[in-house]
Amino acid sequence: HPAPPQRTVRTTCAYCGVGCGVLATPKPDGSVAIAGDPDHPANFGRLCSKGSALGETLQLEGRRLHPTHHGVRTDWDTALDLVARRFSETIAEHGPDAVAFYVSGQLLTEDYYVANKLMKGFVGSANIDTNSRLCMASSVAGHRRAFGADTVPGTYEDLEQADLVVLVGSNLAWCHPVVYQRLAAAKAARPATKAVLIDPRRTMTADIADLHLPIESDGDVALFAGLLAFLKSSDAIDTDYVEAHTRGFGEALDAAGSLDIAAVAAATGLDAREVRSFYELFARTEKVVTVYSQGVNQSVRGTDKVNAIVNCHLATGRIGRPGMGPFSITGQPNAMGGREVGGMANMLAAHMAIEDETHRGIVQRFWNAPQIADRPGLKAVEMFRAVADGRIKTIWIMGTNPVVSMPEADFVAGALAACPFVVVSDVVERTDTLKYAAISLPAAAWGEKDGTVTNSERRISRQRAFLPLPGEARPDWWIVCEVARRMGAAGAFSYSGPAAIFDEHARLSAEANGGSRDFDIGGLAGLDADAYDAMAPTQWPRPAGAATGPANGDTRFFASGGFYHADGRARFVPVEVDAPAEKAGAKAAPGGLILNTGRVRDHWHTMTRTGLSPRLSAHIAEPYAELHPADAARLGLGEADLAVVVSPRGSAVVRVLVSGRQRPGSVFVPMHWSGQNASGGRIDALVGSATDPVSGQPGLKATRVDVRRF
Ligand code: SF4
User: Fold this and answer.
1) Which atom of ligand 1 has the smallest separation from the CA of 48?
2) Which end of the chain is flanked by fewer CB atoms within 10 Å, N or C?
3) Which ranges carry the 4Fe-4S Mo/W bis-MGD-type domain (predicted)?
């Protein structure tokens, strides 16, 4: 980048769903100094290793700087004309469901908004899905079942105020490090605070845990159904709350059946005494927050897991009050913003329902759109199957790398190779997915683009540009609008910039909800470009006329009921404890192992950014398979050996790491490495694509594999 004038810009981290505020100061030598923003209410100046290394990832080497057509440089007009023409021709010949967008939680809310508007209102299909389907779709589905809307009840502050924090399928220390730091500081200040970790692995997060339950993969439904039965038998139900604010308690209790502690121990692979310790702690502690992440969501039982957890909070009335509540922590920087604009195949903008005719009418009228998608589109896994079998003939992938990150990644590669027309927008020159692009479009990167993101506690923060656009790179919103214009929708996509898009998004939220549903940021409508630029981090809801927060005056939902089902009550969801799919996923064949995939501390997704930082790459330099010593000995594998991990779908070569932190019978391999890395290790090629029947989220953490010496 040419050296810009030196001034400090407040922005938001490019990585995880914590959404930390960052101070970025470009220096005359072209470098950028990065510091935590002491005034941002998510992090109060803290940053983790990834955030603090952001300045090391801004170089232009390896950047995509020009549009290309089959790898040959072309100009923007030619590329955009061709994209618009191929989409229009496919729609004319095969109908709107023959095209699709596969987008990303890396997109800013404004990018997401226009992509969703183009597909649902102007193409007339709901075939827009996102890599957030791999991240938190089960939490969305669980929230909608329980609360009647996709509402995260609590805030980060609740973790600091709780007397017990239960962490389920969450390696908070590595995956949401600043929230972990906040929890650790709170625990140090109040040593009586307890933490329980429920995870097959003894991760670094166990360092803060008073109790670690090394549960079998996918045992969570049984554990929390058993907890519900235990709460009942130990007289810990808040019957007043249940009667006043919920429905379905009896059915949920019946589904939990006669699960006693011995039965739970058998179903989860846990020690019965540890199960009892956890249950008793939960039963006697009023202020409980249950934090859950990908170990819950990335499962073929993900939605039931979410509801099994929420059931226990509803039964005890521990929701929406300081230090209490179920809390889904999202993976990506803008997974929540994507949900707000309806950037998923089964949602409409502003948290409205695509199945609801009234909601569809509101959106269509507001957009003055010629049509509106009237049924859910294809979710991520289904979408690539439809590409493979020819139902989808034209696909545009924005800001994501599905040939590395999707389950059955080789199948996804084959589908894209056979697809008649693939468009990929990305910031980098090479990814495994870009190999299949007919048209590649250079997108603006973090630090070059302006917009908003929403973090896990519903806080909308600005990402601000502090570097000029390099080469011919352009923001995603601009690229989408230029294609829309060429498809004949110029009037609806002629925005002056992200401020105008955000304003429309805010006005739609008010129009849609009239203040009566959860997502309403009508109070943020009408900001001019300067006010938008200056916008401070803000939690939603922010209805017109309200100073801040929900009607009860603080930033938590459901302090005294007020759920979004028509009768205002929450729903208990009966969960089937012994569902066959759970057992199929959780048990390996004799001698085989269960593969669990996840993140390492210092890398992000497919490493296109963090791989640029030598400091981050020094933490863990290559992909590895973490095995329990007994399994390693049985397989004749020693520390640092090379091993091949094999499933019926593929194989990957990785380094062996022998560790007592690993549950016997299981193997952990990180998900970051790709075909672009000399070391290989593209593990999602091995993972099956079975999905949760409600959310469509694939189970990425319970694949049967064999491991042997390479
Ligand atoms: Fe960025 Fe997440 Fe680290 Fe905060 S915790 S600095 S948002 S990666």
Assistant:
1) 3
2) C
3) 6-62
CA 123 to chain centre: 26
In 3D, which of 329, 325, 311 has the Cα closest to residue 171? Answer: 329
- Centroid of ligand 1 to alpha carbon of 612 (angstroms): 17
Say how far apart CA 671 and CA 339 lie, in whole Å: 24
Q: Is the peptide bond before 541 cis (omega within 30 degrees of 0)?
A: yes
207 CB neighbour count, 10 Å cutoff: 13
Computed over every residue of the chain, the mean pLDDT equals 93
Q: What is the mean pLDDT of residues 481-508?
A: 97
Start-end of CATH 2.20.25 domains in the chain: 9-57
Judge if the beta carbon of residue 20 lies within 6 A of ligand 1: yes
User: Looking up tokens 């028509």, which residue turns up?
Assistant: 566
pTM for this model (two decimals): 0.96
Question: For domain 68-127+336-539, which architecture applies?
Answer: 3-Layer(aba) Sandwich (3.40)
Kindly report the CATH class assigned to 9-57: mainly beta
In the chain, residues under CATH classification 3.40.228.10 are 137-329
**Three-class SS state of 380:** helix
Expressed in angstroms and rounded, the spacing between residue 499 Cα and the centre of ligand 1 is: 25
The Cα–Cα gap between 554 and 322 comes to 10
pLDDT digits (tens, 9 = 90+) for 147-198: 999 999 999 999 999 999 999 999 999 999 999 999 999 999 999 999 999 9
Distance, CA 606 to ligand 1 centroid (Å)? 17
Instruction: Look at residue 335 in the predicted model and tell me its pLDDT.
Output: 76
Range(s) of the chain covered by CATH 3.40.50.740: 68-127+336-539
pLDDT in tens, 581-601: 434 444 556 678 999 999 999
Pair type for strands 459-463 and 451-454:
antiparallel
Measured distance CA(335)–CA(459) in Å, rounded: 12
Ligand 1 in contact with 18 (CB < 6 A)?
Answer: yes
16 Cβ inside 6 Å of ligand 1: yes
pLDDT of residue 546: 67
User: How many Cβ atoms are within 10 Å of 355's Cβ, its own excluded?
Assistant: 12
CA of 47 to the centre of ligand 1 (A): 6
**From CA 45, how far away is CA 22, in angstroms rounded?**
8
Nearest ligand 1 atom to the CA of 51 is 6
Query: Does 384 score more than 70 pLDDT?
Result: yes
Q: Largest Cα–Cα distance of the chain, in whole Å?
A: 70
pLDDT tens for 393-452 read: 999 999 999 999 999 999 999 999 999 999 999 999 999 999 999 999 999 999 999 999
Beta bridge partners of 396: 101, 423
Ligand 1 centre from 590 Cα, in Å? 40
Q: Is 156 exposed, middle or buried (0-12, 13-18, 19+ CB in 10 A)?
A: buried
Judging by DSSP bridges, how do beta strands 439-442 and 68-69 pair with one another?
antiparallel
Residue 652 has pLDDT above 60, yes or no: yes
Q: How far is the CA of 243 from the centre of ligand 1 (A)?
A: 40
Report the DSSP beta bridge partners of residue 654. 643
Domain 581-709, CATH: 2.40.40.20
Give the C-alpha separation, 251 to 706, whole Å: 40
Ligand 1 atom closest to the Cα of residue 179 is 5
Q: What pairing do the DSSP bridges indicate for beta strands 288-292 and 703-709?
A: unpaired
Identify which of 178, 183, 457, 604 to mutate to test ligand 1's pocket (most ligand atoms within 8 A of the CB). Answer: 178
709: which DSSP letter? E
Q: Is the CB of 329 under 6 A from ligand 1?
A: no
> Ligand 1: which atom is nearest the Cα of residue 36?
6
Q: What is the dihedral of CA 98, 103, 109, 113, to 10 degrees?
A: 0
- What is d(CA 244, CA 189) in angstroms, rounded to the nearest whole number? 36
Classify domain 137-329 at the CATH class level.
alpha beta
Which H or E run contains 483?
Answer: helix 476-484
Tell me the CA distances in angstroms from 143 to 297, 357, 565, one per residue in order. Answer: 12, 21, 11
